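Margin note from the TA: students keep mixing up input and output lines. Inputs are the sequences; the output is the structure of the whole complex. Example:
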Amino acid sequence: MSEQTKEFETEKEEVATPEGVETTRTGRTYVPQVDIYENADGIWIWADLPGVDEKSLDITLEKSVLTLDAQAPLLWPEGYNLIHAEYETGNYHRAFKLSETVDQDKIEATIKNGVLKLHIPFATGPQKRQIQVQSA
Amino acid sequence: MLRRTTNGHSVWQEMERMRRELDRMSDGFSLRRAPNFPALNVWTNIEGALVTAEVPGVEPDAIDISIVDRTLILRGSRQVDDLGENVKMHRQERGYGEFQRTLSLPFHIETEQIKATFKNGVLTIILPRAEEEKPKKIAVQTA
């Protein structure tokens, strides 16, 4: 584990929705913060999804677009009064377009302590072929 | 004691009401911006206080909770996974390193009875109020 620091961000960003379009659920939908790295083994994505476990998380892949959808439960203790609020809970949504160099069938996802880790390996099989164009 | 609900309609109304009140009091400034990580939500009742914080990716044993007088001090750290050599960064949005928050509570706490639970990156701290500070019933006697 490397000893580094980067400033934490506590303000949540809401997903931009087209004008006039709402979600069917009440509550807001946020864009989870992600780290995306690449090494020889492929692409690695970490997403902060506090309150989310594997049951409340949907990951779908369609036409090279990887979409994350999650619901964080609303924790509202009974018999208490809220006296100070700095954050809200809600849903999470984010989508990524994957390049053709990745192997879409071998994506691995694990979630622990509210952090999703995705590993998207590079394709090792036959690659896209470049077709030479010659002038006639 | 904690009730989870996916139909949050009625509780969101209370949140919205709080927002409107805060807006009115402070010139359109809605939820208080957390001065530091992590953001905290604080509830109280006669028995004590309950504090929640979102600390994803932090190991429970890397969290330090202490009380000094009426102040709650929350400390911890989180590190990023080591990917080895030749790593290219595409995006880096998550914070990491050490963090510390202090929170003034409206009463003293029975320190021995503080309970903290951690689930899916959410920390919940239950802080029972000091016995001597709990409101006492005063019997009204007929003269």
